[in-house]
Amino acid sequence: MASSQRVTQARSFTCASRRQHVKSARPDDEPALSTHLRQLMRKMPHAAVVATTSTGGPASSSTSNFRGMTVSSFTTVTLTPTPIISFNIRRPSRTLDAIRQSRQFLIHVLSATEAGASVAHGFTKGNSTDVFAKQQFAVWNVGSKYPLPLLSSPGVTKVLRCKLRDEGEGAGLIEVGDHILVLADVESIIEPPPTKDTAALEDTGLSYVDRAYREVGKVIDVLDTEETEELER
């Protein structure tokens, strides 16, 4: 039988009744190589998730201490013995400052649906406006002085509770050029608050390709090497 490999297909989701592109900050004097690589990487699919954290303060209905951002560099580093994830944050960042202070955060895994794309798009505008006031959310108290904002939305499939790594150089925050590489342990996987149309775990995760949110496309069948050799005989 032919083996299969999943790839992404160009189907994008609309937000706020029209297609939305996330604008990336690019310096005017960016080297040609950097621009070329940027254009190349835009064609590569990246997972789109939302990270939320807090600067501290008592658990209340106030959202002034909450911070959040959409991340397209999220990935797993290892699964054993302790699951470790990573992503990048460009400096300066209020969300990064809050993660540095609290050393913990939540990663919201989003479904490849318009609901998931809407959550992701809502957190691309920074923390200058109170984005949490525009989202359904709940405060999940982790038993410390830093209650974490857990989003409740049909587009959220699972939530990862993460804590910055305490071991190694940089202790979970490593400077790389104008970015910070975040390394964190996954302490638990949380079921998000149920909603009327909550996505199933089987739904594929939200992807970001060519400045648009997309879903996984068709399966491409690939012949096994041994099968190919037999056909050529």
How would you characterize this protein structure?
With 233 residues, the chain is α+β, with helices and mostly antiparallel strands. The protein has a single domain (3-22, 30-232), classed as Pnp Oxidase, Chain A (Roll). It has helices at residues 32-41, 94-102, 114-122, 225-232; strands at residues 3-12, 46-47, 49-54, 66-71, 75-78, 84-90, 104-110, 137-140, 148-151, 156-164, 173-176, 179-190, 207-209, 212-222. Strands 3, 4, 5, 6, 7, 10, 11 and 12 form an eight-stranded antiparallel beta sheet that branches. Residues 1-10 and 16-23 have low confidence and may be disordered.
The overall average pLDDT, rounded, is 81
State the share of residues found in helices, binned by percent: 10-25%
Q: Number of helical segments?
A: 4
For the termini, the CA-CA separation is 18 Å
Report the sheet-strand fraction: 35-45%
* Count of folded domains: 1
- Which descriptor suits the 3D outline? globular
Number of strands: 14
Low-confidence stretches: 1-10, 16-23
CATH class: Mainly Beta
CATH architecture: Roll
**Fourth CATH level, the homologous superfamily:** Electron Transport, Fmn-binding Protein, Chain A
How large, in whole angstroms, is the Cα Rg? 19 Å
The H-and-E topology, N to C, reads as EHEEEEEHEHEEEEEEEH
The profile of the biggest β sheet is: 8 strands, antiparallel
Broad structural category: alpha+beta
User: Which fold name fills CATH's third level, the topology?
Assistant: Pnp Oxidase, Chain A
